[in-house]
């Protein structure tokens, strides 16, 4: 188990870099492979009605591409990471990337969404370009700028991380 350095105040010594350690288990690879095989198999099935078959083929192709992307992203190339330096906090997850300078952060607290506990970080992001996922999240009521899932980084004490972020942002 990796131990992270703390200073005399109980805050993390920066820079702090952590990578997401979770890996897919063998059963999950089998599940994704089976889903891909089912979607592709449905595309290859013959059909009588050309229009309906074409629509179903497009539908199954979209699902096959989406789940194939998820499988490859989680397995090989799109690993989540967290970097906290003296100037900014940077967080990358499967569907996006966020870099928040400490001077823009005004609040950090724990939130729960659908049973997942996250460290929500609110920042003043005037003029920032928002991704499709961020705009969708805002539409459904998410108010924080970045949410770091507590379960994603097992070696981090998130209460210490929250206090470190608030300290660097100058919030008491």
Plain-language structure description:
This protein has four helices and seven strands. The protein is α+β, with helices and mostly antiparallel strands. It folds into two domains: 16-20 and 79-169, Roll (PH-domain like), CATH 2.30.29; 26-77. It has a four-stranded antiparallel beta sheet with strand order 1-2-3-4, with no helix packed on it. It is elongated and about 70 Å long. The mean pLDDT is 84.
CATH fold call of the largest domain: PH-domain like
List the helices and strands in order. EHHEEEEEHEH
Secondary structure tally, helices = 4
Portion of residues in beta strands equals: 15-25%
The class by helix and strand makeup works out as alpha+beta
Give the helix proportion (percent range): 25-40%
Average of per-residue pLDDT values: 84
Evaluate the radius of gyration. Answer: 21 Å
Straight-line distance between termini: 31 Å
Q: What shape does the CA trace take?
A: elongated
Total number of distinct structural domains: 2
How many beta strands in the DSSP annotation? 7
For the record, the CATH architecture of the largest domain stands as Roll
Describe the main β-sheet briefly.
4 strands, antiparallel
């Amino acid at each position: 188990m990796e131990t992270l350095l703390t200073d005399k105040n109980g805050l993390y010594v920066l820079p702090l870099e952590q990578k997401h350690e979770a890996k897919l288990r063998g059963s999950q690879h089998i599940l994704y492979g089976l889903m891909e095989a089912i979607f592709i198999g449905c595309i290859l099935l013959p059909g009588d009605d050309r229009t309906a078959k074409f629509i179903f083929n497009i539908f199954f192709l979209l699902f096959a591409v989406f789940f194939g992307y998820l499988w490859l992203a989680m397995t090989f190339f799109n690993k989540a990471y967290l970097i906290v330096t003296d100037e900014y906090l940077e967080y990358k997850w499967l569907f996006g990337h966020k870099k928040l300078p400490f001077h823009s952060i005004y609040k950090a607290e724990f939130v729960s969404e659908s049973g997942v506990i996250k460290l929500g970080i609110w920042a003043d992001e005037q003029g920032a370009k928002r991704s499709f996922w961020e705009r969708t999240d805002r539409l459904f009521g998410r108010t924080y700028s970045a949410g770091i899932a507590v379960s994603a980084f097992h070696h981090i004490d998130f209460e210490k991380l929250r206090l470190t972020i608030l300290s660097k942002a100058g919030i008491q």
